[in-house]
User: Fold this.
Amino acid sequence: MTMSLLRVENLRTYFDTRSGVMKAVDGVDLDVREGKTLGVVGESGSGKSVTALSIMRLIERPGRILPGSHIYFEGKDLAAVSERELEAVRGNRISMVFQEPMTSLNPVHTVGNQIIEGIRLHRRTSARQARERAIELLELVGIPSPERRVDAFPHQMSGGMRQRVMIAMALACEPKLLIADEPTTALDVTIQAQILELLRQLRDRLAMAVILITHDLGVVAEMCDDVAVMYAGEVVERGSVDAIFRSPQHPYTEALLRSIPLLGMTQDEPLNVIPGVVPSALHWPGGCRFAARCSYAFQHCHRQPPALVATRSGFAACWLRGNATERSQRGAATDA
Ligand SMILES: Nc1ncnc2c1ncn2[C@@H]1O[C@H](COP(=O)(O)OP(=O)(O)OP(=O)(O)O)[C@@H](O)[C@H]1O
Assistant:
């Protein structure tokens, strides 16, 4: 059994907007095992990015992480530590790679200087040593002629190369956990595959854990050990990829799996799209949030929210799955 590296419990992140309180993340539990990859999947707006940003405590006003949220990592609750303590973790023990490298890289500095800045923020090294380490990192992420590329500016590189630079920056301090939020969405399909392959190699070589946020269950199948399925600000199912792909217990997971394009399908064959839309984070429905789109829903589903309880594939929040536990006991159920 692999040890837990990160445990998120009852994470709630709300945004106070003019129209009301957006309950973007509303009681999320996650578990990331040491050296393993957790895929976080779900439709747009389900709260994946807000969850990732909350783990790093990068939520800015009007957003707030609510009391009672816990982010346990290396013996600390990151939801409760001081900003100063957090700075020692961020970019050092936990790093993040975002979707669009051009918005994260500074256009007026060379990529080398940006990597060096990251290294020197957390490590006492001379400028020369840091530059050598930057070249080493560029080589590690597969950038050709790193001695020359270290002095290049972001706009002189292709999208794929820039994403490699972002990964190099994230790895500068050999983090125990890398959070990658849709790291390949902005890239061409062939480059996407290369970046995912690079992430997989680096995870094994550096023995780090990865949280991979994606829309794409095909990517989860290839890359991840565990998966958490998010819907409307909650995790509705989680467990090992093998078990959940073989035997999904939540109707939403089932529907997502049915919507994966299969090899050999022609472009004009319709995919199984899930009818209906995700409800608004301003007004989550009172019962199961998926009930309005669920073909199995019965009356009770619309009234009472189901708890996340143990199933044969992991944990699922569905009244069809022997869900006798009330929501107030959710914590106990997820710890079981
Ligand atoms: N700064 C903000 N102010 C108000 N609401 C926000 C803010 N950031 C996110 N939200 C809301 O939080 C909800 C969750 O957003 P989030 O970006 O986490 O979804 P996601 O699952 O990552 O979607 P996508 O796959 O499109 O990135 C959305 O309803 C979004 O509108």
In short: Residues 15, 17, 22, 24, 42, 44-50, 63, 215, 281 surround adenosine-5'-triphosphate (CB under 6 Å).
